[in-house]
Specification:
2 copies of one chain form a homodimer. By secondary structure, chain A is of the alpha/beta class. Helices cover 46% and strands 15% of the residues of chain A. In chain A, strand 2, helix 2 and strand 3 form a beta-alpha-beta unit. In chain A, helix 1 crosses helix 11, helix 3 runs parallel beside helix 4 and helix 5 runs antiparallel to helix 12. The radius of gyration of chain A is 21 Å and the shape is globular. At the A-B interface, helix 7, helix 8 and helix 9 of A face helix 7, helix 8 and helix 9 of B.
């Protein structure tokens, strides 16, 4: 299996990308195709004693910056490492693509270069997030700030396929983020999505109140990309706020440091559970081949796990599963009608 | 000063309401007017040895349930303890109103019985929330799931008045919840609100990413009521998740219990900071007299603090301040135009 990796995406490119790629080819029985400046890649590898065994390179000069217009990836920057990687993916030179570059550019690039699965209305950014019970997938984490009800239903189906095929969760519970549990709650968007979800091929939990999310009430959390992005960032923010608080409790006094020693095992377990580098990246659901958005600040470990996640998507046949499930729902404009008759 | 309190709102009514009212008249130099079934109130007070000194009662038979349609408060349930309290407020029998009853009913009742401040487009539910730096007010926490840009601008102005007059924050920073910090981010709602905020009589922080919120980046956090409610509930949920985690770290082993002893002071300080019963309730901004929504599960301490908060709103002349600030902006349909010329 070949995983294409954007060697120049993220804050720590290319060194940490190379570290992750090298660890991946060693441990995961995959080949890696790097896109980016070949000279810099080879020099970085040599200087840091990183083997490029089972790693090939597609040379490209330019890189897209996170501050550039996302659409630049299909226009003036169509020769950047991200765009070239997506073209290679579309041409079958690899089975999946990983990048830690600009999220907006990746969404645009994946949609227009690698293309959506037939019937998918919008590709969604789906981060995997830790909960008290394990993990959940949030769809949409920010790719589409404005959504229609049938898009939310597709998000739920796609997230369900991922959790089932990659995270091995049997009939994952799909919750619709809303301001109350009753089916009369929310905006027109949630009211109609709720109606359509009742007939969708997923295990629908119903409306999900945000306070239940960290406790793992649902494995698939569905919302429009605006609410989802706010949710994702508050989740991250609260997590780091608590780490700061814990550190303050434990590290600012002698008694605290003693206390820390006594519960070090539990603190480590909690940190590992909350550590995004262990989870991999966010998956771009709805694209015709697996595309993983690694965290912008990814280190080697995070890139390794993103490649592992990409491999799992390929092996789990997530794209095929989504295609089948959406066909059952009807991916075209008639989706509403079809859904309602698919009960 | 007279504070009217709904004696039958919340899960612990009327006992905890009476406890809070009794503590309030003792410590706050206020009188309390209770609305609800006089017989039950007197019996509960006697059985629990609670003095009704400086506490008067307006008798009413019925109570509105949280599961009833909010509009019932101005229709079939117009004689419930909440509606009667709001009528008494409108008639000047008291200076502010406190209830732990149905939020929806309180928003409807306050809007149609106590009435909005002239020029206010929508009353907003504004919870006071703890941050690393102190406190912030979230406007709107859930009263209006659909909002227009000029409503968000009014939310920011009203929240600013509250934080300044009641929490003594000099020129509070007003942040607009958005998916990125650049002024090109968000939906039409945020794009237009951002433009209007630049000319509003507040210290505008700009777009606020949710991850900054717990660290206290802004004292006034503005969003539509749907996003705000999700934000509020995730904030609560993450808080209780963290408390559970901490308890698990400290209370499930001997070493942990020892550790707990060593950092007990800091744990207590943190708990107190995060304790909603110490903050009071959510304030209903935009109503012609102060209305406080106490937490549904309020205990005596929380009711005492809600009454204290109501008193502070009266003394701080929050309503008058809002009236003046909105006049400066122009509260009618021309608000946009006026805003843009008010720079």
């Amino acid at each position: 299996m070949k995983i294409i990796v954007d060697a120049f995406g993220g804050d720590n490119a290319p060194l940490e990308v190379l570290k992750g790629a090298a660890e991946a080819v060693q441990k995961l029985d995959v080949e890696v195709v790097l896109t980016g400046n070949e000279k810099i890649i080879r020099e970085t590898a040599e200087k840091n004693g990183i083997s490029l065994d089972k790693i090939s390179i597609i040379h490209t000069e330019s890189v897209i910056d996170i501050h550039e217009e996302p659409t630049a990836v299909i226009k003036e920057k169509e020769d950047c490492s991200m765009a070239v990687g997506l073209k290679a993916l579309a041409e079958g030179k690899g089975d999946a693509f990983v990048s830690a570059g600009s999220t907006g550019a990746l969404v645009v690039g994946a949609t227009f270069i690698a293309k959506r699965i037939k019937g998918v209305k919008r590709a969604a950014l789906a981060p995997i997030m830790p909960t008290a019970k394990g993990h959940m997938i949030l769809v949409d984490g920010g790719a589409n700030v404005d959504c229609r009800p049938e898009m939310l239903v597709q998000f739920g189906i796609m997230g369900s396929c991922y959790m089932n095929k990659v995270m091995s969760v049997k009939s994952p519970k799909v919750g619709l983020v809303n301001v109350g549990s009753e089916d009369t709650k929310g905006r027109e968007l949630e009211l109609e999505a709720y109606r359509q979800f009742k007939n969708a091929p997923v295990s629908f939990y119903g409306n999900l109140e945000a306070r239940e999310i960290p406790f793992g009430a649902c494995e698939v959390v569905v919302s429009d990309g605006f609410t989802g992005n706010v949710l994702l960032k508050l989740y991250e923010g609260m997590g780091s706020f608590f780490s700061h608080t814990l550190k303050d409790m434990l590290m600012t006094s002698f008694g605290g440091k003693l206390a820390a020693l006594m519960i070090m095992k539990k603190i480590k377990a909690f940190k590992k559970k909350m550590d995004y580098t262990e989870v991999g990246g966010a998956v771009l659901l709805g694209i015709s081949k697996p595309v993983i958005k690694a965290h912008g600040s990814s280190n080697g470990r995070a890139f390794y796990n993103a490649v592992r996640q990409a491999k799992n998507c390929v092996e789990g046949k997530v794209v095929e599963e989504i295609t089948t499930s959406l066909a059952a729902l009807g991916g075209d404009k008639k989706s509403t009608a079809n859904t309602n008759t698919n009960a």
